[in-house]
Write a structure and sequence with these properties.
Strand content: 25-35%
CATH architecture: Roll
Largest sheet: 4 strands, antiparallel
Order of helices and strands: HEEEEEEH
Helix content: 25-40%
Number of helices: 2
CATH topology: PH-domain like
CATH class: Mainly Beta
Distance between the termini: 42 Å
Number of domains: 1
Protein name: DUF5753 domain-containing protein
Oligomer: single chain
Structural class: alpha+beta
Shape: globular
Length: about 120
């Protein structure tokens, strides 16, 4: 098993307890908060067909699937939500995949029920 496969497996494992029945993972990536070695926290972002999950050591935050992450640039891409999350460039393809999957869902009209109101 290669690096990419192990990374995807780790993300799926972290997300599994928080998925609803039938919910499908589209992609995922790791982000961090903090700026010093002693106060850095790691978060797992998981884009599914229904929501965005942010999994941390204290639990999970479930956001609507309409969240766009934007075009990643630089060494770290910043995502501004309840705090600033920084995503290393090694995950840029996953950020792009998440936004493309959302675009495809809009084109197909295949949005989660909470977003069709």
């Amino acid at each position: 098993m290669g690096y990419q496969e192990r990374r995807a497996e780790l993300i799926a494992k972290r997300a599994a307890p928080h998925l609803e029945p039938g919910e499908q993972i589209q992609t995922g990536f790791i982000a961090q908060t903090g700026s010093w070695i002693f106060n850095v926290r790691v978060w797992t972002f998981v884009a599914t067909d229904r929501a965005i999950l942010i999994v941390g050591r204290d639990g999970v935050q479930r956001l609507p699937r309409d969240l766009r992450f934007g075009e990643p640039t630089g060494m770290y891409h910043k995502i501004e939500l309840d705090r600033t999350y920084k995503v290393h460039r090694q995950y840029y393809s996953e950020i792009t995949t998440a936004d493309e999957a959302l675009h495809e869902m809009h084109v197909r009209g295949d949005l989660p029920e909470s977003e069709q109101r």
